[in-house]
Design a protein that fits this description.
The complex is a heterodimer.
Chain A (H helix, E strand, L loop, with lengths): L7 H23 L3 H20 L3 H14 L12 H22 L23 H9 L4 H8 L10 H16 L1 H26 L8 H41 L3 E2 L4 H15 L3 E6 L4 E2 L1 H22 L3 H6 L6 E10 L2 E8 L6 H10 L11 H9 L17 H12 L3 E7 L3 E9 L3 E10 L2 E6 L3 E7 L1 H10 L1 E4 L2 E7 H4 L12 E8 L2 E7 L1 E10 L12 E6 L5 E5 L1 H17 L11 E4 L3 H13 L4 E4 L2 H10 L4 E4 L8 H10 L8 E5 L4 H10 L3 E4 L5 H11 L2
Parallel strand pairs in A: 2-4, 9-17, 12-14, 18-19, 18-20, 20-21, 21-22
Antiparallel strand pairs in A: 1-3, 4-5, 5-7, 6-7, 8-9, 8-15, 10-13, 11-12, 13-14, 16-17
Helix pairs in contact in A: 1-2, 1-4, 1-6, 1-10, 2-3, 3-4, 7-9, 8-9, 10-11, 11-15, 13-14, 20-21
Chain B lengths: L4 H20 L9 E9 L2 E6 L3 E6 L4 E2 L7 E7 L2 E7 H4 L10 E5 L6 E4 L1 E9 L3 E2 L17 E7 L2 E6 L1 H12 L12
Parallel strand pairs in B: 2-12, 6-8
Antiparallel strand pairs in B: 1-2, 1-9, 3-7, 4-5, 5-6, 7-8, 10-11, 11-12
Classes of the chains: A alpha/beta, B alpha+beta.
């Protein structure tokens, strides 16, 4: 293949080098270390050489100047670049990046005239030594990954992903071998049958011959075995191909880390403009999503991080006076939450100036004078535009533009933006957007003849259930598992599939966790795991909440991807309904014993429990509680800690020590909220700990439902 | 990062759609006096569909059932990597839901929508004069269709058949799904 475009390889290489230089300069700025200088010199030098070969003099010159700035610092133990040199490096970095970008723009700037035959010297993209040194280099691993993954360009699909894909393809190919063996075996059997048939035809062998019967039996056996082998092999090939497809689809997605370098640079520039020292942190570089989505978010977050530096981070003197480190921190954290991606910008600055916000809001007529909105209501005003807390409008931030952009992007992507203000300690801007395409690992399950995928992230474990256990769990909508009673929901019920003929057989309970809740979902069998790309349900397909998204299987048919949150909610509800349903042969519910010295608490708890349908007995002290506990069978103890006489810890400990009472779960309800108390609670054997201050009826009932059979 | 990879993707998508569309659209009749019609049965009753309002007819396409609030929504089918919701025409027409329909017709327009029916009787060309009470006429829509989903009747050998108006069917589905019928959605690749 002759390369008619002499710049073809240079473009790729130059982009890679520019990315590495951009990220290296920021490393140097934040953490001056000799190996960063060495690394940058190497990149610049490589770029200079390559640029000269393809006659890109401007780039070569800038790379040379870049080197010139760095060379004097090569041997310094701690490279100390004066601010103006640092700025010069950043400027050169930008210029080089500009030239390189211009090279890639198709119509812009026709490539420099070069003889088509000119030999092109290309440096391997990932020279092993370079890569190894890069890896060793003391850089923030996340940032490095971010820069490494900075690719919204097809030429540079992250190498590791391609390796994974190739592995998967290799694996799939290797599964072909048994099929080929099977083919040979089949040919051999075919010959045997023909021989046998021929002998029968010419009458040499008759059906009554015992040798003929033996041959036929043997053939039947071999054919059966071959059939099983082939089925296994095809199953395996299918699974591997599924994996291949999932990984290939994943290549279309871009890691979130690819926007980190730009954000880091924005923080750096804003800090420089403000004369502040700010450290940039990032996490979640590996979360993958569609490039369009990421581009939009990157645009919004550029404003958000700048705002954080300009409005949030205080000048050094103020920080020191407030007992904070002189250097401020701005962090960008990306996390996947089910079908959503969460982008957080966290700073440790002063937080939003509520008084200033109120003043501005009043001036703008957004707030009636004298009104006293809650702090969060004021903060929310920022999101609605037109308000900035900056005393002066600077060139990098001000007028609340950042928040407007963030809000617009959220709106455009169907997401949400929110702000958490911690006065004096900083602020968090959170942008949550739904992911249209999402690469995930799925657990493939079968129920009632349907195949569906569960997000593997949410699966805690799988438990095999016998036919009897399955039937019992289905009838009661509950499953006892590891000393807990979990709501149980057969998947076929969640998917509204008629139950299999002849009742349920054995199966598997998939224990799922979501929303800090755990439930068990009954399936017929597990069919492996796979990497898949989940896409949203089509607009015209309203679905039950248990369905999260859809993926495409090997045959091109849609396969449902279940939503863990939806399943948990449905299992909870079904379980509660089943319990309330008197037609079901459920054991009568056992009463609850409330132990508390405060009359108010006793009455409050009794009314909550009774209105939830429980029978309640009361005890005013630990001693009375013990007495009652021994006199009647309870389903649960609910006890205060601080009581005259024996306290709640003791009450729990004593009941745990009593073989007749030890199995009855106990919940501690107390105004003590310390970790130490919680730990003690766990130690004595309490099943849950509810703080009265945060007393939440639903939380309490959730605990009770979880614990009581 | 600013050189728009999105614009290329958009262009490719448009080209691809145009290409697909050129196949999906039936060769237009030069004779304005005629209509291409599919004669079908849904819920045991005869109907006709204008071919120009559809973009494909498929038999035995696997449909993944989708539990949800819409009984008329049979589920999802895959078409060249796209996931298409499939509704039961009989149910949309208000007939009792019987057996699972075998055929499905893709409605023209976006977002993609499949309408399933039980039997395909054939493909006929009907003269405009054979169509009575065509669209544009006010009042009686000539049948039991919900929300004007039937527009006119066509006289064919073997009896007259109500014509199912696919755009009206689409509007009905949009209403059922609670989805505003809007211009093209902005979708990420």
């Amino acid at each position: 293949m002759t390369s008619r475009d002499p710049l073809r390889y240079f473009r790729i290489e130059a982009r890679e080098l520019v990315d590495q230089i951009s990220s290296g300069v920021l490393d140097l700025d934040q953490q001056p270390e000799p190996d960063v200088v060495a690394r940058l010199l190497r990149f610049a030098h490589t770029l200079k050489g390559a640029a000269r070969v393809v006659k890109q003099q401007e780039i070569a010159d800038r790379a040379h100047e870049f080197e010139e700035v760095l060379v004097p610092h090569r041997d310094e133990r701690v490279p100390a670049l004066p601010a103006d040199q640092m700025r010069e490096l950043l400027r050169l970095n930008d210029e080089i990046a500009g030239y390189v970008t211009a090279l890639s723009a198709p119509a812009a700037a026709p490539p420099a005239p070069v003889e088509p035959e000119a030999p092109i010297r290309t440096v391997p993209l990932n020279e092993p030594t370079t890569q190894a040194e890069v890896d060793q280099a003391h850089v923030d691993a996340e940032l490095a990954r971010g820069a490494d993954a900075a690719s919204d360009r097809p030429e540079r699909a992250a190498t590791a992903d391609l390796d994974d894909l190739l592995d998967a393809i290799g694996e799939a190919s290797s599964r072909i071998a048994p099929l080929r063996d099977g083919g040979r075996t089949l040919a051999r059997l075919h010959r045997k049958v023909e021989t046998l048939g021929e002998r029968m035809r010419i009458g040499r062998t008759t059906v009554s011959d015992s040798s003929a019967r033996t041959s036929v039996r043997r053939l039947a056996g071999e054919l059966g075995a071959l059939g099983r082998r082939l089925t296994d092999a095809v199953d395996q090939v299918e699974r591997e191909l599924d994996e291949v497809r999932g990984r290939a689809e994943g290549l279309r997605l871009v890691p979130a880390g690819s926007i980190f370098t730009a954000l880091r640079r924005a923080v750096r520039d804003a800090a420089d403009g403000e004369g502040k020292r700010v450290r940039f942190q990032a996490s979640g570089a590996d979360v993958r999503m569609g490039p369009n989505l990421l581009n939009l978010i990157s645009g919004a977050f550029l404003h958000v991080v700048r705002n954080a530096v300009v409005h949030g981070i205080e000048p050094e003197a103020q920080r020191l006076a407030a007992g904070k480190p002189a250097e401020g921190t701005v962090g960008v954290h990306v996390e996947r939450r089910g079908r959503y991606a969460e982008f957080r910008c966290v700073d440790d600055g002063r937080g939003f100036d509520l008084a200033a916000l109120r003043r501005t809001a009043e001036e703008r007529g957004l707030l009636a004078p004298g009104a006293d909105p809650a702090p969060q209501a004021l903060i929310d005003l920022v999101l609605h535009g037109g308000i900035s807390t900056a005393p002066g409008v600077t060139d990098v931030a001000g007028r609340g533009i950042g928040m407007d952009v963030a809000r617009d992007v959220a709106l455009q992507l169907g997401g949400e933006v929110s702000i958490v203000n911690r006065p004096g300690e900083g602020a968090t801007v959170r942008l949550v957007v739904p992911l249209t395409l999402l690469s995930m690992n799925g657990l493939i399950v079968e129920a009632g003849g349907t195949t569906a995928t569960m997000p593997l992230d949410s699966v805690l474990r799988c438990v095999r259930l016998s036919a009897d256990e399955m039937a019992a769990a289905t009838a009661t909508a509950r499953l006892a598992h590891e000393r807990e009673v979990l709501p149980f929901l057969p998947l076929s019920q969640a998917l509204r599939i008629a139950p299999a003929e002849g009742g349920a057989g054995s199966g598997v309970a998939v224990v799922l966790a979501a929303d800090r809740d755990t439930v068990a979902i009954g399936v017929d069998r597990l069919a492996g795991t796979s990497t898949l790309v989940a896409r949203p349900l089509p607009d015209l397909a309203p679905a039950a909440p248990v369905i999260g998204s859809v993926s495409i299987d090997l045959d091109g048919n849609p396969r449902l991807v279940l939503d863990a949150h939806g399943l948990v909610a449905e299992a909870r509800q079904e379980s509660t309904t089943a319990r309330g349903d008197s037609s079901l042969p459920v054991k009568p519910r056992m009463p609850i014993l409330v132990v508390d010295d405060s009359l108010t608490t006793r009455m409050l708890e009794r009314s909550i429990l009774e209105s939830a349908g429980y029978e309640v007995d009361l005890a005013a002290s630990g001693e009375e509680g013990l007495e009652k506990a021994r006199a009647r069978r309870y389903g649960l103890y609910l006890t205060d800690i601080d009581m005259p006489g024996i306290d709640g810890f003791t009450f729990v400990a004593r009941t745990r020590a009593d073989p007749a009472l030890g199995h009855v779960p106990a919940i501690l309800v107390s105004s003590r909220a310390s970790a130490e108390d919680r730990r003690r609670g766990t130690e004595v054997g309490a099943s849950a700990y509810v703080v009265k201050g945060e007393f939440n009826q639903e939380e309490l009932l959730a605990h009770i439902r979880r614990l009581i059979l | 990062m600013t050189a728009g990879p999105g614009s290329v993707a958009r262009r490719v998508r448009r080209l691809r759609e145009d290409f697909d569309q050129s196949f999906a659209e039936p060769a237009r009749s030069h004779d304005e006096e005629h209509f291409e019609l599919l004669t079908i049965r849904a819920g045991g009753r005869p109907y006709a569909i204008k071919l120009s309002q559809s973009s494909g007819v498929h038999p035995d396409r696997p449909v993944t059932p989708l539990p949800g609030p819409q009984p008329a929504l049979l589920g999802l089918a895959g078409f060249a990597g796209a996931v298409v919701p499939v509704y039961d025409l009989a149910a949309l027409l208000g007939h009792p839901v019987g057996e699972v329909p075998r055929w499905l017709v893709l409605a023209a327009g976006t977002p993609r929508l499949g309408l399933a029916f039980h039997e395909l009787d054939g493909h006929v060309r009907a003269a405009a004069t054979d169509i009575i009470r065509d669209s544009g006429e006010t009042g009686d829509d000539g049948g039991h269709g919900l929300g004007g989903t039937l527009r006119g009747l066509v006289d064919l050998p073997g009896g007259s058949r109500p014509i199912i108006d696919i755009p009206a069917m689409r509007s009905l589905v949009h209403a059922l799904a609670g989805h505003a019928q809007a211009a093209d959605e902005e979708d990420a690749p």
